[in-house]
């Protein structure tokens, strides 16, 4: 069951989104050579709580930290810790915020120091795929069109989409209906969804230089590419409006 949000509900999600965007701005400032992912997580949690929000990841299904910090071949759900960022790394950081019982979710991938042109291109294609998908949203559009837009753009630039993980509806819960995959499958077409005004989605392409196949590390959380090639991740929370779409997590 997909819940279309009221103006009041969207207003609360908008406030959560502002905190997410501020936290991601802070992450860009903090993510430099020799800084640990633990330090970044600690400072972002302080920022979220200082702005009257709660880190929605912390404690979710036992997850131990406030953010997900995924480096290089880590796709999503990297756990912050003592790892120090190095020149040439890329850091995908995912932040979720609860504000007065409503939620918003966002992610960016950050270059650490100077990175190779091929790495920067991977990041740019991922972010552009997200933006192109959002630009096409309006009432009456099918969810498969959003997924297809991401897949077509990414594969058109000779990268792979991760098929094991997807975006999602969001609102009073972190994960609501519908799932928002980054590719078109027979299952999606058989259960396609018409986007209506008030639908709130977290759209999050995860793309790879290699095959797009993934596996989970021994910590039961961190997802990595099987071939250990680089991965990038960008995410926005959006709401379908009467005339188009509003991004709730604009930086």
Task: Please explain how this structure is put together.
With 251 residues, the chain is of the alpha+beta class. The chain has one domain: Creatine Amidinohydrolase, CATH 3.90.230.10. Helix content is 30%, strand content 25%. It is built from five helices and 15 strands. The strands form four sheets. It has a five-stranded antiparallel β-sheet with strand order 8-7-9-14-15. Strands 1, 2, 4 and 5 form a four-stranded antiparallel β-sheet that branches. A hairpin with a 2-residue loop joins strand 4 (90-99) and strand 5. Helix 1 (7-30) packs antiparallel against helix 2 and helix 3 runs antiparallel to helix 4. The model has no long low-confidence stretch (mean pLDDT 98).
Residue windows where pLDDT falls under 50 for at least 5 positions: none
CATH topology: Creatine Amidinohydrolase
Which class of secondary structure composition applies to the elements?
alpha+beta
Strand content: 25-35%
Please state the average pLDDT score: 98
- The CATH homologous superfamily is termed Creatinase/methionine aminopeptidase superfamily
Q: Kindly provide the name of the CATH class.
A: Alpha Beta
Tally of strands: 15
Quaternary structure state of the chains depicted: single chain
What is the straight-line distance between the termini?
30 Å
């Amino acid at each position: 069951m997909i819940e279309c949000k009221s103006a009041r509900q969207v207003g609360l999600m908008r406030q959560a989104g502002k905190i997410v965007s501020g936290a991601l701005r802070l992450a860009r400032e903090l993510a430099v050579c020799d800084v640990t992912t633990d330090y970044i997580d600690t400072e972002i949690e302080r920022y979220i709580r200082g702005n009257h929000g709660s880190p929605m990841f912390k404690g979710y299904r036992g997850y131990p930290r406030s953010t997900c910090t995924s480096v290089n071949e880590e796709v999503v759900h990297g756990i912050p810790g003592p790892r120090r960022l190095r020149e040439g790394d890329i850091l995908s950081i995912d932040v979720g915020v609860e504000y007065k019982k409503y939620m918003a979710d966002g992610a960016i991938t950050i270059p650490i120091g100077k990175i190779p042109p091929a790495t920067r291109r991977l990041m740019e294609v991922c972010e552009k795929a997200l933006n192109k998908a959002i630009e096409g949203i309006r009432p009456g559009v099918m969810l498969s069109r959003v997924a297809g837009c991401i897949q077509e753009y990414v594969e058109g630039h000779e990268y792979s989409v991760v098929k094991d993980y997807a975006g999602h509806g969001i609102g009073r819960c972190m994960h609501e209906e519908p799932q928002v995959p980054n590719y078109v499958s027979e299952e999606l077409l058989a259960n396609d969804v018409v986007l209506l005004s008030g639908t709130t989605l977290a759209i999050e392409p995860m793309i790879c230089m290699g095959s797009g196949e993934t596996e989970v590390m021994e910590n039961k959380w961190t997802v990595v590419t099987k071939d250990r090639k680089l991965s990038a991740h960008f995410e926005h929370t959006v709401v379908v409006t009467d005339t188009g779409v509003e991004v709730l997590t604009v930086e």
